[in-house]
Amino acid sequence: MGAHLLVGAHVVAVLAVVLAAALLGRVAARAARQPEVIGEILAGILVVPVVAAVAGHGALAALLPPDVLGVLKYIGKIGLVLFLVGVAHELRRGSGGLGPRSVGWVAIGSFFPALAAGFLLAGWVLWSGDDALRGTAPVLSLVLMIAVALSVTAVPVLARILEDRDMMAGRNGKLSMAAAVFTDSTAWLLLVVAMGTASGGWTGVVRSLAVLLAGVVIAVLGRVLLRGSTSSALAARIPKLLSVGVAVVALVLAIQMEHWGLTAVFGAFVVGLAMPNGEGAERWEAVTRPVASLGRLFVPVFFVVAGMGLFATPTSSMPWLAVVLATALAIVGKVGGGYLGARLGGEDRRDSVVIGVLMNTRGLTEIVVLQAGYSAGLLTAGLFLALVVMALVTTALTGPLLSLIDLRARRTASLPVLELQGGRQ
Q: How far apart are CA 278 and CA 410, in angstroms?
C-alpha cells in the first residue's frame, strides 16, 4: 500500500511539473504570436532532453522510473482520446453554403499534391539506404505513412488561428476549414491502411477496413439516435452527466479499437462524429466541450511520453537533410497545392495564397499521426524527429506569412493614393 502511495505522489509531482511547463509554453507561444499548441508541443517534448542534459540520464531515470512512466503513458493517452472527441466534433463543420466547385478544388488541391510530395520524400528515404531513417517497416506501410504525414492539416489548430484572426466567418476561413475536414478525414483512412499493412499485410488491411466500417456504422447510428428531441432535451437538462457518459464511451471504444489493431484515437473520432452538429448543436457542444477541455489539460503529458520514447532511442545526430527535404516538400505540397486548387476553384490570387498558407497548418493532428506511426514501428526515431520539426516549422510559419500577406495587401492598396498625392504636389 505504501509503495502505491509513493508512486501516486510521484505521478502527481511529475504531472504538476508537466502542466507548469505546458503553461509556460503557452505563455511563450502567445508572446511570440504563435498558436498555443506550438508551445505545448515544444515544452512537452523538450522536458525530457533538458532534464537529461542538466541532471544526467541517471537523474532522468530516477525522476521517470518505469512504473511512473507507465502511469503517465495512460494519462497522456486518456487526455488525447478525450481531446480528440472535441476535434472530431469540430470536423462536422459544414462548408457554410460555399459552392461545391470551390470547396472541391481547394480540397483536391490541398490534399493530392501534398500526398505526392509525401511519395517523393518516401522515395528519397528508400533510395538513401540510411537505416536510421528507413527502419524495418514494410515498403507500402512506410510510403503511406510518410504520405499521410505530409498531407495532414490540423483542424483544431487551424480553427484557433481563424478565430484569433477573426477569419472564421469569412470565405477564406470557411474554404480552408471545409478542405481541412476532407484532408484530415482522408488522411486518417490512409493511416488505417498503413497500420493494417504493417500489422498483417493485406489481411491486416481487410481487418482494419472492417473495423473502420464498423466505426462508421456506430457513428451514423449514434448520430441518428442522438438527433431526436428527447436526446436534445436531455443534453440541455443534464449536460455534465452526459459529458461523463461520452468520456467513458470514448475511452472504452478507444481501448477496443486498439485491441482490434487500430490506433486508440479512432475510437475518439467515432464518438465525436456521433455527436449531432445540426439543429440543437449548441446543446451537444455543451456536452463535448468539457470532455475536450479535460483532455486538453492532459495532452501535454502525451508529448512528454512521446519525448521520452524519442530521446530514449539513441540517434547519431539530427537528420538535417531529412528535415530540410521534409519541410520544403511539405510547404510546396500544401501551400502550392492549396493555391492551385483555390485558383482552379475561381478564387483570386491573394485569397488563393491565404488559403494555401492556412492549409499548411499541421500542429497537434500531425504529432498524433506521427506518434501513431512511431509507436507502430513505421517510423524510426530519426525520421520521426525530422517530421516533428517539419510539423512545428510549417505551423509556426502560418501566422507570420498571413501577417506578411496582409501587410503587402495594405501597401498595394495605398499605392494609388500615394501616386495621386504626388501628382497634386
A: 38
* Cβ(351)–Cβ(342) below 8 Å: yes
Q: Is 297 exposed, middle or buried (0-12, 13-18, 19+ CB in 10 A)?
A: middle
What distance in Å separates the CA atoms of residue 199 and residue 184, rounded to the nearest whole number? 22
Helix, strand, or coil (residue 152): coil
Q: Is the dihedral of CA 2, 5, 11, 16 positive or negative?
A: negative
Helix axes 171-226, 265-274, angle to 10 degrees: 80
Q: Which residues contact 336 (CB under 8 A, 6 or more apart)?
A: 113, 356
pLDDT (tens digit per residue) in 191-245: 878 877 776 666 766 777 777 788 888 888 887 777 776 677 777 788 888 889 8
pLDDT at position 418 is 44
What's residue 186's pLDDT? 82
Structural domain contains residue 300: yes
Candidates 358, 294, 298; CA nearest to 331 is: 358
What CATH number corresponds to the domain at position 329?
1.20.1530.20
Within a domain: residue 289? yes
Alpha helix ranges (H) inside 313-375? 320-331, 337-344, 349-359, 363-375
Q: 372-419: per-residue pLDDT in tens?
A: 888 888 998 889 989 988 998 998 898 889 888 888 877 776 655 444
**In this structure, are residues 385 and 367 in contact, taking their beta carbons and an 8 Å threshold?**
no
How many domains, in total, are found in the chain?
1
Whole-angstrom Cα distance, residue 108 to residue 61? 47
Whole-number Å distance between alpha carbons of 56 and 385: 21
**Do the domain assignments include residue 293?**
yes
Residue 393 belongs to a domain: yes
Rg of the chain (C-alpha set)? 22
Residues 6 or more apart whose Cβ sits within 8 Å of residue 254:
77, 81, 264, 265, 266, 267, 268
Look up the domain containing 117 and give its range.
Answer: 76-406
358, 161 contact by CB (below 8 A): yes
Residues of the chain where predicted confidence (pLDDT) is lower than 50:
417-425
